[in-house]
Design a protein that fits this description.
Elements (H helix, E strand, L loop, with lengths): L17 E5 L9 E6 L2 E6 L11 E7 L7
Antiparallel strand pairs: 1-4, 2-3, 2-4
Length: 70
């Protein structure tokens, strides 16, 4: 999935990065996970996931673009 916005820069994930999400992985405490909140996906550490929220998938890799293609 392509990342939009700058909300996740503290995790090293930037706008226009591509997140490779593996839904088959069992999340570990140190993993970044994708979860759903009010019509949009969110990213956070598993340990900071809101109470009663299930992770949708584990961020397995991030692809950073070095060259602007436009």
């Amino acid at each position: 999935m392509r990342i939009t916005g700058s909300d996740w820069e503290e995790l090293g994930i930037f706008a226009d990065d591509i997140a490779i999400v593996d839904r088959a992985l069992e999340p570990r405490k140190s993993d970044d996970v994708i979860w759903w909140e009010e019509s949009e996906f969110r990213i956070s550490k598993l340990t900071k996931l809101p109470v009663d929220t299930a992770p949708w998938g584990v961020v397995a890799s991030i692809i950073h673009r070095y060259r602007n293609l436009s």
